[in-house]
Each structure stands twice: as C-alpha cells, then as structure tokens.
Amino acid sequence: MSGDGEPGGPAWTVLAPAGDRFEFVDLDAEGTETARATLTAAELPALVATRVRTRWVWADAAHAYGRMLVAGARVARAWDLRLCRRILRSAVDPDGHGALGPYDAWDGEAAPAQDEGLFPLQTGHAPRTDEAVVELRRQLAALGGAPDRGRLRMLLHGESAGALVSEEMHAAGLPWDAAVHGRILTEQLGPRPAGGGVPARMAELAEEVRAALGDPSAILDSPPKLLRALRRAGLPVASTSKWELREYEHPVIEPLLTYKRLARLLTANGWAWLDEWVQGGRFRPVYVPGGVVTGRWASSGGGALQIPKLLRPAVRPDAGWVIVDADAAQLEPRVLAGMSRDLALAAAARGRDLYAGVVASGAVATREEAKYAMLGAMYGGTKGDSGRLVPRLRRAYPTAMAVVDGAAAEGERGGTVRTWLGRTSPAPDAAWLALSSDAGAEGAPPALRDLARRAAGDRGRFTRNFVVQGTAAEWALCWLAGIRSRLHAMGEATGPRAERSGPVFAARPHLVFFLHDEVMVHTPAEHADAVIAAVQDAAAEAGRLLFGTFPVDFPLDVDIIGTARAD
DNA sequence: TCTGCCGGCGCG
DNA sequence: AAAGCGCGCCGGCAGA
Fold it and tell me: Using the CA of A222, which nucleotide's C1' is the nearest one?
C-alpha cells in the first residue's frame, strides 16, 4: 500500500464495512487516491496503529467505528460524512456554488446497523467507498467556499470527534452497580413485586390518597380521571402536575406527590429498566451526537440523558479504578460572555461563581435574582421575576444582551441565526411562514394576528436560546475531544484491568459519560490525578479554541467516585 | 390491535 | 421566588 510511505499515514482513509470485512481507500492531502484494499477485522488494529495522523472518513460512525472498536481498533481523527453534511448543508449558501448538490440521502438518519443499504446512493456497480469519496470531495469543496471556514472546520472536526467519543462510550459502557440500584428501588418502593404488580409502598400511598379523597375507587394513573377525582374532593385544580398540586393545603397532596414520584421511578428506571439496560456491570446507552438542532447530543433508548439524581450512587468504578466526574459551572452564561466579547460579563464570570459576580457588579441584589435573570435572558423569560429582572441585566451587560436580543429579533422575523462556530438554526416551516403572511395581510382577523404574534414570540425564544445552547454544545465538543486525546496520550496502566470495558479500554483511562456540560472518566486509580489535570487542561483549551485570548473562565466542579463510596 | 398525540416529569 | 429553551420516555387515550 503506497499510503504507508507517508509518515503518520495518508491524509485521509475512507472506510466502509462490507460484510465481515472492511474496504478502504487512501487519499492524499489533495484528495487524490493513492491506495485501496479490503481487510479482515483482525487486520484492522495493525493498520490503524501505523496511521497516527490519518483522518478516517465514513458515512456514519455508528456503523463503521462501532465495528472497528469491537475489533480492537481505535482511531485518533475522523470525518463523519453524515454529520458534517448536515452542518454544511445549511452553512453553505445553497445559491452560492451549489457545492453540495441535491444528494439528500446523505442528510437522513443513520442506517440501521444491519442494513446493507447504508449508502443509499450506491448505483450497483460502484464500490461503496467510492460514493463516500465523492461525498468527501464535495464537502471539502463546499467548505473551501464557506465564508468563515476556519471556525466551520473546527466545528466539523469537533462534531466528528464527538461521534468517536459516543461510539467509544457505548463500547466501554458506564460502570453501573445493579445491586446499589436495586437497593435504592427497594428502599423507595418496597421489594420487587412478583409478576410485575404494584410495589407495596405505592399501594399503601394509593390507599392514603383514596382515603384523603373519600373516593375508594379513585384512579391515580390516568391524569383526566385523577383530575376529576381531585375536583370532586373540592380542589379547584386545572391540571394534575406536581407544580400546581404543590400550591394546595390538603391531606391528599403529600401522599399523592410521593405516589407520583415513585410511579415515575418505577416506570422510568425501575427493575424492568435494570433488566433491559444493565448487563455485566455496564449501562450502554445509545448516544446520538448532533441529535438536537442546537448541536447538543440526544440519546435513543435507556434515557441516558435523564438518569435521576437519586440513582447516581449506582455509578461505581471497577475495583482498583475510580471515576472522575467533572462539570462545567454555569457554562451557558460564560459562553455568552465569550461570543459577545462582553468584558463586563466576563469579569463577573471570573472565578467560580458567575452569579456571585453578577451580584457584586451591582446589577441585582441576590444570587437567586442573578440566576433567574440570566435564565430569563437566555430563554426569553417575560413574566414574573425573571421578566422583571432581565432589563437590569440589559443595562449591566448591554453587549452580551445585544447578542441574545438580536438572535430573538431575527427569529421573530423568520430569519435564521448561527452559533459561534457556524451551525445554522433551522428555517421556519411552511406553516409558520403561512401564518405569518396571512396575519400580515390587510384585514386579517385579530385572532389570527394574535396567533401569529405568539408563533413569532415562540420562534424568537428558540433562536435566542439557539445561539447560546448551540455555542455551549460547541465548547463541550472541544472539551470532549481534548479530554479524549489527552487520555489516550497517557498510555496504558498497570494493575487491575477493566475487562468489561472492552479490548481498547481495559487498561487505560476512558470517557464513560457525557451530558451537555458534564463528563465522567473511568480510570485506574493510579491515574486519577493525571485525569483531573487532563480534564482541566482540556476545559482551558476549549475556551481558547473558541474565544482565543478573550478573558473568560470555564471553571469545573470535579468529584472522584471511588469503589468504597459510603452512600 | 395498532398508531400517534398528549400530559407529565426526569435531565441540562 | 421562575415556568422562558432543548430533549426522551412512559402510560393513557382517541381514532383508525
């Protein structure tokens, strides 16, 4: 293979699984093919090992990289064609060069893993890697014509690195102690009922609720029926949400709220969840990088992004290992300071507590006010304390507020907005545009105008939040990618191995969890300090990558979860 | 019996 | 104390 002649390997290797083998095409930096071959899974690790600088290209990491990891091959860099196309489609002016063309098949969802038709564009005579090579060249050409290609390239690299991390975390799994989880369930619900009946504690609470309502046949699991039962008992509630119930003084409230909490625990993360999602001491959720329009990750199955705090004690490292748990404090307002270049907000963000900094600046009186005002600024709060406090923030931080206010105004007009690195918000759909134009027509009925005004407001709050949430997601991608490369550079450890984490990660620190602004790293205990340093370094680097020398801090809260945790 | 919508609630 | 943004998942329910 001629590509092996270059130090660190070829610039690009386009790879696709083909049955139980893998076919690949090497390209040089100019995109010219230099080699191609087909390999068995067993041959992959040796190939990857010689290519430390190669960027691996595939249609979809979930399809290609997941199999590589099982085969024991980990790559350093990647280009995920499907994720990159989604960003480039809206980032590149479609009327400009038309560089991406109408190949909508690349914009769709990932193909099911067992689907041989992963490349929907395959014409029947071309090898599937050739389709990917064509798409890669198309994307690079589009990127070359993009206005702010430096940032956009960083976003595409970050997005693709995120896809690597998501596959690696799925392969390694989050260490999950089913016995601790079971103990929590038993404490809360009572013993597991045989045959899937109602747990004892819930049955007791249901009886208390029925007694307090004076209604022995009241049904608690159906909101409409529960609502009627509450009203019959004299409670003038409009819904059965706990937010509203909380406001009433009545003997039914406390047992009912407890019942609802336990019902939620049982259905969302009860014994059935444990049976389905935890095997061999690992929880392996399916992450969906870029699954949210803002660029945040989504998840599919297992509710990985909704693990209740109550169950956090079930996260436990293997013997001889620890879990480093780090989250970025007040990430979104800090990102807003960076992207707006607002020096006053950046000054308030100096140090650990941004809200304390806002109070110290005199903008508001208390930390709680600072928190709600900031929430209102980023989400578009209009009512209550939040709406009342936002104008004070506008006076104290006009530069930062101009960014979110401007994004809201653009959204209300029907325009699109962009994150700091260049992810574009979706355009309004046909129904929104139709409503907007109908309501703007001469003689439109007031009710229609109200509807349109509300839709405009909704969209303004969406675009307002899009720029902040999306840029925070970009910071997090840079953070993740930086942690990943630093952990790999640390090398393998001696001592006990985490065999359940798979061949690539059994002896080295590795990421096991990511949730918007939080990461967990499972590491041999001897490396814990080095991991903390890596996570801190990566956070500082993420800030520099996005905002250069602009002085905004990104402090982390870091915890170590040990084997012998006392909870 | 299946499918899609909705209320409700967990997470950030 | 606010209820403004973004998700996924569950059970119930109405309509096919």
Answer: C12
Q: For strand C, is any atom closer than 7 Å to the CB of A241?
A: no
| Spatial separation of the C-alpha atoms in residues A162 and A484, rounded to whole Å | 10
Structure tokens at A378: 């980023």
Please state, in angstroms and rounded to a whole number, the distance separating the CA atoms of residues A175 and A132: 36
| Joined tokens for residue A260 | 């609802």
Element (H, E) at A320: none
Q: Which nucleotide is at minimal CA–C1' distance from A311?
A: B10
Q: Is the CB of A160 under 7 A from strand B?
A: no
Identity at A400, one-letter amino acid code: A
Cβ neighbours for A404, distance < 8 A, ≥ 6 positions apart: A336, A377, A378, A464, A467, A468
Q: Which nucleotide is nearest to A459 (CA to C1')?
A: C5
Model's pTM, two decimal places? 0.94
* Any strand C atom closer than 7 Å to A293 CB: yes
Residue with tokens 């006990």: A496
The per-residue pLDDT for range A280-296, each reduced to its tens digit, is 999 999 999 999 999 99
CA A46, chain centre distance (Å)? 32
Is the CB of A375 within 7 Å of strand C? yes
Radius of gyration of chain A (CA): 26
pLDDT for position A114: 38
With the C-alpha atoms ordered A114, A118, A124, A128, is the resulting torsion angle positive or negative? Answer: negative
pLDDT at A110 over 60: no
| Nearest nucleotide to A263, CA against C1' atoms | C10
**What's the average model confidence in pLDDT over A186-208?**
94
What type of residue sits at position A379? Answer: Y
In this complex, the answer to whether residue A43 has its CB under 7 A from any atom of chain B, a nucleic strand, is no
- The answer to whether strand B lies under 7 Å from the CB of residue A240 is yes
- Asked if residue A411 lies in contact with residue A359, where contact means CB atoms within 8 angstroms, the answer is no
Predicted pLDDT of residue A256: 96
Which pLDDT score, from 0 to 100, does residue A1 have? 44
Q: Which residue has the higher pLDDT, A132 or A19?
A: A132
Q: What is the pLDDT of residue A5?
A: 53
Residue A103: pLDDT band (50, 70, 90) is low
